[in-house]
Amino acid sequence: MKLVIAQMKHETNTFSPVPTPLARFATGGSMPPEGKDAIAAYRGTGAALAAFLDLAEAAGAEVVLPIAASAWPSGPVHDAAFEHIAGRICDAVAQGCDGVLLDLHGAMVTQTYSDGEGELLRRIRAIAPQVPIGIALDMHTNLYDTMGNNSTVMAGYQTYPHVDMYGTGQRAGKALLALLQGSARPTMAWGRKPMLPHVMRQGSDDSPNRELQARCREMEAQGALSATVFVGFPNADIHDAGLSAVVVTDNDPTRARRWCDELLDMAWAQRQAFVYKIEPLSESMAQAQRLAAGKPTGPIVLLDHSDNCASGGTMDTMTVLGAMLDAGLQDAAAFAIFDPEAVQQMMAAGLGAEVTLSLGGKLDMPSIGLKGQPRVVTGRVKLLCDGHFRNRGPMASGEMNAMGPTAVLDTGGIQIVVISNHVEPHDLAAFEAVGISPDRLKFLMLKSRIHWRAGLRSLAGGVVECAGTGVCTSDYDLLAFKHVRRPIYPLDAI
Ligand SMILES: [Zn+2]
């Protein structure tokens, strides 16, 4: 048995000004890894791709791995990048294989295609119409029919933060291998509801997503090969953005349809519970200081939830950090401000130097009518490093991250981590890489919405959700939706 196994992962925020060339898929290198380099990068990690490799090995299959391409979320993927990645995968399939296993995101938008994954799958099917295709998908998939019509098995993450990527790869991979070995006949039903759940209300520890995901696992215990609710990624102005579901059964299309509809109806009934109410920043700052005064067991976490790079934020807006500086917070850290230029200035000044910088705010955000607003900050260059670290987990465990040249600017009250590549803080190893012990702090600002919970929540003495500025805003009034289908809740009162 010969399997083509590959990865193409990008969540596209169509409002983001952050460009997405091929280099963004290279995790610190110049090109995304291929062949044995890709296997070395992912074997033994928590990625769905790693599960595919393990399953293939256990089945004694020959593996061809043409490319493993994963990038932090940002604006639409450049056509040249998509053509390169899709071209590698299609070329491998054209050489002949018995099955295809793909580690995809599900919310990729390119300069040309609003459904990048659907376009890739359509091309593969055109080359090899009879070859079964199994895909692992992110919970933030915006599901198009093209994806379902051109694949055999779809399985999505059941956790947010995403700590079950490997398990999702197992669900998709096992169902596909069962088909190839003649022990199952997977059949799928999928569908959508016209709703755009707010990301801040999508955590799988919180109701209503907790109950939806629990019902998926229950269906799998009752015989489904895979059951998935995709909460969708709303900061994408494309026709089919929003919540969807897919259920795979063993040769029982009626049950797949019934279960899929049950999940969709459950979600629709809870649509109001997926709406996030934004608190004014001044109230959040006051609340953070009240909580800190109450002798908490760990740092008060201030979530700068409008500007997280795992949703395509520029990660350089200064609104929340500026409020912290204005409030004179002490024993604090901020992770992180994306500003390669400021890092270079600090490198030129050298360790221990006192510098005054125009920090952050380098990127304009025309989609929400904002110019970048830097802030003048004075501090001491406390640390300089290459920014490489390997995740401890539980999310994406074992995978490498490349923040690029990185500096810590110490203002006296706040240690500000300044990075040259986007990386969202969800893993303790990111802090170890810059010599910061979060548990010793009074305040910890994170540019994150939900993913920080994976590796850092257990440390938090309190959490305050701070509405800053950025293209990851949960205020849909700021986003000029033109292409998403209407009516859709809560943009329309249905
Ligand atoms: Zn996601």
Structure explained in plain terms:
The chain is built from 13 helices and 19 strands. The chain is of the alpha/beta class. It has 2 domains: 2-274, Rossmann fold (3-Layer(aba) Sandwich); 281-473, no CATH class. The strands form 4 sheets. It has an 8-stranded mixed sheet. Strands 1, 2, 3, 4, 5 and 6 form a 6-stranded parallel sheet that branches. It has a 3-stranded antiparallel sheet with strand order 7-9-8, sandwiched between helices. The longest helix has 17 residues, at 253-269. The structure holds zinc ion (ZN). Zinc ion binds at residues 138-140, 162. The site of zinc ion has 4 residues, from loops.
Features:
six-stranded parallel β-sheet, 28% helix, Rossmann fold, 494 residues, 13 helices, alpha/beta
CATH architecture field of the largest domain:
3-Layer(aba) Sandwich
Approximately how much beta-strand content do the residues carry?
15-25%
- Total strands: the figure is 19
- The percentage helix is 25-40%
CATH topology of the largest domain: Rossmann fold
What's the helix count? 13
